[in-house]
Amino acid sequence: MGAVIAGIAADPAPPAPGAAAATSTSTRTSGTQDPLRALDPAYYVSVLTGQVVGRSRKISCPFHDDRTPSFHVYEDPGDGWFCFGCRRHGHTADDLAAALWHLDTRGPAFLELRARLYELLLPGQQPPAAARRSRVDTHRRPSRRAD
Ligand SMILES: [Zn+2]
Predict the structure, then answer these.
(1) What is the whole-number distance in angstroms between the Cα of residue 137 and the centre of ligand 1?
(2) How far is the CA of 71 from the centre of ligand 1 (A)?
(3) Which of 20, 98, 106, 142 has most Cβ atoms within 10 angstroms of its Cβ?
(4) In a domain, 147, yes or no
C-alpha cells in the first residue's frame, strides 16, 4: 500500500443525519448521483417481478393478467419500462416498486421504499443520508366532476 495522505480535506463536514430534513425549499436534482437510477432495467425488473427478462425484453405485466407479454423493459436506464397492455410505465426501480408494493413515492413511504430497494438491489449499500424526493409525478388526483 502507498502512503496515506490525510492532510488535505477540503470538503465541508457532512450535515448530521436528520438535520437535512429541516430545509427543503429548493429541490434541484440535476446533479444527483442515484445508484438506483443507474441500474439496468432488466436487472431490477427481474428482481422485483421474479421474471427473467430475456432477449425479447418483454415479460408478463405484473399489474394485470397478461398472457402475451406486453411489459417492455428498455435497455437504457433512462428509458425504464413500459407496458403496452395497460400503458403503465416508469423510469426507475422506484416507480416499479412503488406500484408493485403500493407505496407512495412521497414522505415516509418513499423512505421505506428506498430502503427496501437498496436491500434488494444494492445489498450492502445505504441510501444517501440526504436523499430527497426527486421528480414526483405520481401525484394525480382523479378529477372530480361537479355533481
Ligand atoms: Zn400492463
Answers:
(1) 19
(2) 6
(3) 98
(4) no
Cα 5 to ligand 1 centre (Å): 54
Tell me whether residue 97 is in a domain: yes
**Could you give the CA distance from residue 14 to residue 107 in angstroms, rounded to a whole number?**
22
Cα(58) to centroid(ligand 1), Å: 11
Count: domains in the chain: 1
CATH number, position 43: 3.90.580.10
What is the CA(100)–ligand 1 centre distance, in A? 12
Residue 144 in any domain: the answer is no
Each residue's pLDDT tens digit, 54-94: 999 999 999 999 999 999 999 999 999 999 999 999 999 99
Q: In the 3-class helix/strand/coil scheme, how is 67-125 assigned residue by residue?
A: CCCCEEECCCCCCCEEECCCCCEECCHHHHHHHHHCCCCCHHHHHHHHHHHHHHHCCCC
Is 24 within a domain? no
Q: Which three cell numbers stand for residue 110?
A: 418513499
Going from the Cα of 65 to the center of ligand 1, the distance in angstroms, rounded, reads 8
